[in-house]
Design a protein that fits this description.
By secondary structure, this protein is mainly alpha-helical. It has 9 helices and 2 strands. The longest helix has 29 residues. Pfam families: Retrotran_gag_2.
Length: 209
């Protein structure tokens, strides 16, 4: 563990765009997870790295057992506290005040997941509703596609990704009657349309209109 300390200290010096607030847990987790994985310390939060015992038993040449300090324990604590400190730096004050009693990185990670789990489910439902009800209206093709792709990306970040064909159905559903010739052409296709193809087709259709 000691050989990795300096390297992950350097990697974890990188920040994230937004600190965790009461409304952005999914996006915060999406930003913070690669930082931990890239530094090779994600095991401190996912439960696979457990705290070593403070003492251990050794035997001398005569077989006599002696209990003494476990050198792995202070190293584990040092690295765990560095991860904990990194996470705490990326919490807003409103969230930070609710976790002041937490002492390990794993404990903090679990507490945050529990704290925002119901909120995350609500956000997923809201995103799906937004996809179903989305309308292009007066937006440009690029703006409408970007908005729809953004909603799909949020679902993926929440662990609820949708397939491209489902996103395409939402996009097609969001156009008005002026696009009926394009919709009819898509219905007549033998092979499914891709997102890139749909974007190009709608852009060309708008130019002709």
């Amino acid at each position: 563990m000691s050989s990795s300390t300096s390297s992950f200290q350097l990697t974890l010096s990188g920040g994230v765009t937004k600190k965790l607030s009461r409304t952005n847990y999914i996006l915060w987790r999406t930003q913070i997870t690669p930082q931990l994985q890239g530094a090779g310390v994600y095991h401190y939060v996912d439960g696979t790295s457990t705290e070593p015992a403070k003492t251990h038993i050794t035997k001398d040449a005569a077989g006599k057992e002696t209990e003494g300090p476990n050198p792995l324990h202070p190293l584990w604590v040092k690295e765990d506290q560095q991860v904990l400190g990194y996470l705490l730096q990326h919490l807003s004050k409103e969230v930070l005040v609710t976790v002041t009693a937490i002492t390990t990185a794993r404990e903090l990670w679990v507490a945050l997941a529990s704290m925002f789990s119901s909120q995350s489910l609500s956000r997923v439902n809201n995103i799906r509703t937004a996809l179903i009800n989305a309308q292009k209206s007066n937006q440009s093709v690029s703006s409408f596609f970007a908005a729809m792709k953004g909603l799909a990306d949020e679902l993926a970040a929440a662990g609820k990704p949708i397939q491209d064909d489902e996103l395409i159905s939402y996009i097609i559903h969001g156009v008005d009657q002026d696009y009926q010739p394009l919709v009819s052409a898509l219905d007549a296709r033998v092979t499914p349309v891709t997102l890139d193809e749909l974007f190009a087709m709608r852009s060309n259709f708008d130019q002709r209109m």
